Amino acid sequence: MKSTRDIILDAAAAKGAVAAADTETKNRALLAMADALIEGADGILAANAADMDAARGSIGEVMLDRLALSRERIEGMAKGIREVAALPDPVGRVLAHVERPNGLVIERTAVPMGVIAIIYESRPNVTADAAALAVKAGSACVLRAGREAHRSASAIVEAMRRGLTAAGLPGTAVNLVEDTSRQSSTELMTASGLVDLLIPRGGAGLIRACVENATVPCIETGTGICHIYVDAAADLEMAVDIVENAKCSRPSVCNACEVCLVHKDAAEKFLPMLRERIGGRVELRLDGRAAGIIDGKRAGERDFDTEFLDYILAVGVVDSLDGAIAHIAEHSTGHSDCIVTADSAAAARFLRDVDSAAVYVNASTRFTDGGEFGLGCEMGISTQKLHARGPMGLAELCTYKYIIRGDGQVR
User: Fold this and answer.
1) For 350, how many CA atoms within 13 A lie in the half-sphere containing its CB?
2) What's the N-to-C CA distance of the chain in angstroms?
3) In this structure, are residues 125 and 119 in contact, taking their beta carbons and an 8 Å threshold?
4) Is the distance from CB of 81 to CB of 132 less than 8 angstroms?
């Protein structure tokens, strides 16, 4: 087994070649990586089947769905890579241009980050998304998948490396850590001088461990305690459709709704509609006022502060828009929150006062996604405010430097 440090050193040695690659070369590599995923689908599915067999009994059905691959999902991964290839190259973009009175021309210019490390858990598709974005942004990457997804991730990386080398880039531009113990995560977190950016993508425990222990720059991607607030002026049929989609379409992802708040004037009519639509699939955990209207399990002390990632929804009744905004300020993780309303003034207040990375009016929180935002795919969804916020695409994976041109000026 290759050591984690040696793998990091491989990435550091490859970063120069990736940074120097022109747009045509990078795009050719990405398209070859996508083709290699399709060509290698049988091997990837076989590896995923072994991961699935090993995971059954130790993780629930919803989490198994996160782990599972199919030909359709592999085709989706390849499609995402091709979409990244079609996007404008972020490297070399002039972000600001200033001409000084002394004749100096100063440009703030986007440049590659260098080596990007990504620690993630049980979603094999993250392997392809992260690699594609890193390569297009001119960086090498080191991927550290969770133990339960390691076989799948290894097969995906093997295929993508074939594409990279076919296009003339080093295969070590994309690397997978072989050690799945906590030690390898710690090595990535503390690889100062080698890893230029660390992105954890997973549950609250993983993200907290990275934020607390990393000595390399780290972007906090978010746990998603996402809220939908059904206003007094909401179209209730629309509201039920939105909550159903946000909770039920894929409950194991971070943009799924975990809390539904309902204005007291809409609750008597809306809550029975909600129970009828999703009550057979979703366990509703009700605050005292909601429990006075529909049957369901009473919410526990932590239910409005929990990312369930399952068919569970905390439901509460609030007195006003102000009450909803205050509740979200106290309980949200700053990921994605939504208001359903026909009142434009209420919508404007919600958009202004809810301090989350993505704030919606009359649309499912499930749209908080790099692909849906036109970014091709995403490296993760940042819930912090410095450098990157929301879905992180190519622009967020670059840094910048100042380029100054003169003709002999001295100070």
Assistant:
1) 28
2) 55
3) no
4) yes
- Predicted pLDDT of residue 286: 97
Please count the other Cβ atoms lying within 10 Å of the Cβ belonging to residue 277.
Answer: 17
Look-up of token digits 């309902």: 262
Strands (E), 9-114: 94-99, 105-112
Q: CB–CB of 338/364 below 8 Å?
A: yes
What pLDDT does 85 receive? 96
Which class for 171: exposed (0-12), middle (13-18), buried (19 or more C-beta within 10 A)?
A: middle
Q: How far apart are CA 35 and CA 37, in angstroms?
A: 5
> Whole-model pTM?
0.85
Residue 399 exposed, middle or buried by CB count within 10 Å (0-12, 13-18, 19+): middle
Mean pLDDT of each 10-residue bin along the chain, 411 residues long: 96 97 97 97 97 89 88 94 95 97 97 96 89 97 94 97 96 96 93 94 80 88 90 98 97 94 98 96 96 94 94 97 98 95 98 96 94 80 82 91 96 94
Residue 76's Cβ-count burial label (10 Å; 0-12, 13-18, 19+) is middle
CA distances from 250 to 297, 313, 372, 409 (A): 22, 13, 15, 60
Other residues' Cβ atoms within 10 Å of the Cβ of residue 345: 10
Separation CA 214–CA 108 (nearest Å): 28
Give 249's contacts (C-beta < 8 A, 6+ positions apart).
256, 364, 366
Q: Is 399 helix (H, G, I), strand (E, B) or coil?
A: strand
Residue carrying structure tokens 């958009």: 351
Ramachandran quadrant class, 138 (left: phi over 0; alpha: psi -120 to 50; beta: rest): left
- C-alpha 365: how far from chain center: 13
